[in-house]
Amino acid sequence: MINYASREINCKIVYYGPGLGGKTTNLEYVYKKVNPDTRGKLISLATEQERTLFFDFLPVNLGSIRGFKTRFHLYTVPGQVYYNASRRLILKGVDGVIFVADSQAERMDANVAAIDNLYHNLSEYGYDPRQLPIILQWNKRDLPNAVALDELRSQLNVHGLPEFEAVATQGVGVFDTLKAVSKQVLKSLS
Length: 190
Ligand SMILES: Nc1nc2c(ncn2[C@@H]2O[C@H](COP(=O)(O)OP(=O)(O)OP(=O)(O)O)[C@@H](O)[C@H]2O)c(=O)[nH]1
Ligand SMILES: [Mg+2]
What we know:
Largest sheet: 8 strands, mixed
Radius of gyration: 16 Å
Helix content: 25-40%
Bound molecules: guanosine-5'-triphosphate, magnesium ion
Structural class: alpha/beta
C-alpha cells in the first residue's frame, strides 16, 4: 500500500451493502463533486437496469501527507445476493469499508444479510473486522418509510462503529462518510 520509491500511498476503500442501497449513487456523487484534476474516470460495469454487475471504480487523490501522495481507490460491490463471488473478489486487499444501509423498513432483512455477508467474506480472507476501519452509512433518510436510527443501530451496529446519516441522491453525508473512513485508514498506517 505504501510505495517509498514513488512516495505514494494507495488505499482501497470498498462500499458494501444490500442491493439498491445507494452504493453506486455515493460514488457518482463523489465523481461529480471532486475537482476533475484530482480524480480519474468512473468505471461502472452495470446491467441494463443500472444494477452493478461487477463493480464501480473511481480513483481520487486526496492530497499529501508527509510528502506522500495519497490515492484512494473507491470500489462498490454488487449488492444483489447471488453476486457473492464478485463481492468477495473486490474485498481482496481492502483497507477500509463503508457499509451503506438502506433505511427503509422493508430492507432491514437485506441490511442484516449484507452485513453478515461482509463479516463472513472478511473472515474468509483472514481480516480481523476489529482491526479494519468500517464506517456505517444510514442512507435514504429522506424516505417516509425510513426506520428510526435506534432500530438501525440495534440491528446493524452492535459494535458501536462510527455512523453517518445520508441521502446519497442529494449528496447528504456522502463526504462525511468518505472522510471518516479515509482518516481511519491513514491513522491505521501511522
Ligand atoms: N430516495 C432516495 N433514493 C436513493 C438514495 N440513494 C440512492 N437512491 C436510489 O436508489 C436506487 C439504487 O441506488 P444505487 O446507487 O444504484 O444502489 P446500489 O447499492 O449501487 O445497488 P446495486 O448495484 O444493485 O448493489 C437508485 O434509484 C437511487 O437513485 C437516497 O438517499 N434516497
Ligand atoms: Mg451499484
